[in-house]
Amino acid sequence: xxxxxxxxxxxxxxxxxxxxxxxxxxxxxxxxxxxxxxxxxxxxxxxxxxxxxxxxxxxxxxxxxxxxxxxxxxxxxxxxxxxxxxxxxxxxxxxxxxxxxxxxxxxxxxxxxxxxxxxxxxxxxxxxxxxxxxxxxxxxxxxxxxxxxxxxxxxxxxxxxx
Length: 162
Prior knowledge:
Elements: H1 4-28, E1 33-39, E2 42-48, H2 54-57, H3 65-82, E3 89-92, H4 95-117, E4 121-122, H5 128-140, E5 144-148, E6 155-159
Parallel strand pairs: 2-3
Antiparallel strand pairs: 1-2, 4-6, 5-6
Helix pairs in contact: 1-3, 4-5
């Protein structure tokens, strides 16, 4: 449970990240609204397009690689501002929100295969955010899962019920 002190700290993280991102958008001459929230015990910052999001999609990059790098930079900006390590989540042009839904569907399909066959099902390599989404869906379905392999080839295995 997040108390008021934690919420204030997380909001301060969001503000520091938003300042960094506003400066970045100004330098790049891009438009976007910044939305700050606190979800699941972490600060979340979303950059949302004012109009067509084509420009912002350049900040996502193929498979979210640029977004991941910008998230790391935003976390460093927060750490420089607050002195604390941040677990801030950054989303741009709803990339992570859309990716979350696609991953949840992939996880539900894997759960169905495991329930039908009784055999383990391995999913393709994923980053930590993606693996967390899958683990949460599998857990909610009443099955177990584990991550195997080494980054960047770490993947989730959905396990049959024991």
